[in-house]
Amino acid sequence: MIRPATARDRAAIARICLLTGAHGADATGVHGDDALLADVYALPYLDGPGGFGLVWDQGDGAVGYVLGTSDTASFQRWFSGEWWPRVAPTHTRVNETGAALAEEAADPRRMLDADLGAYPAHLHVDLLPEAQGRGAGRALIEAACALLAERGVAGVHLGASRANAGALAFYPRVGFAEVGGDEAGVTFARRLGGAQVAE
Q1: In this structure, what CATH number is given to the domain that contains residue 143?
Q2: Is 54 helix (H, G, I), strand (E, B) or coil?
């Protein structure tokens, strides 16, 4: 049920990103422009340096994914220098919330808050309701970590909103430990090659 993402999955990936983009719930209408979320958090991983995408497909197309990059620093440079300048002008119908997200996306240090020396990779996991409770999240995480380990990556990190109780409970169960955060979110990380991050 896990397979590499292809160009034909782009629309499904964008849809999954939107339908899970409000702390795990449907973000339709939240930002005014419903295409904005995917251009910040999903689609660039199919194109950028070190990027990868794996999808959970139950037979009718992708209903979940793990997306990420093995090199966050290089990916951020590409995102700020090439991706965002190209796609930002297409998002003209954002509301106040969307404008705040676009401003955040334009920050050239947005992805550089974590300890990139120990955890240079990062990833995003999202599942539609029909894929939840089937082991898909765990399977996608393990597949992504195996892919990154094969690339020789030392560790991986990800962020979760404090408002997403499901994510906060899930990541420690799949080998991630909290390594940072603030009032809005938590940064989790996992060493690769079998060594779990110490809590």
Answers
A1: 3.40.630.30
A2: strand
Question: Residue 199 domain-assigned?
Answer: no
pLDDT in tens, 17-68: 999 999 889 999 999 999 999 999 999 999 999 999 999 999 999 999 999 9
The reply to whether 83 falls in a domain is yes
For 99-117, write each residue's pLDDT tens digit: 999 999 999 999 997 778 8
| Full-model pTM | 0.92
3-state secondary structure 115-178: CCCCCCEEEEEEECHHHCCCCHHHHHHHHHHHHHHHCCCCEEEEEEECCCHHHHHHHHHCCCEE
Domain that holds residue 123: 2-191
The answer to whether residue 159 sits within a structural domain is yes
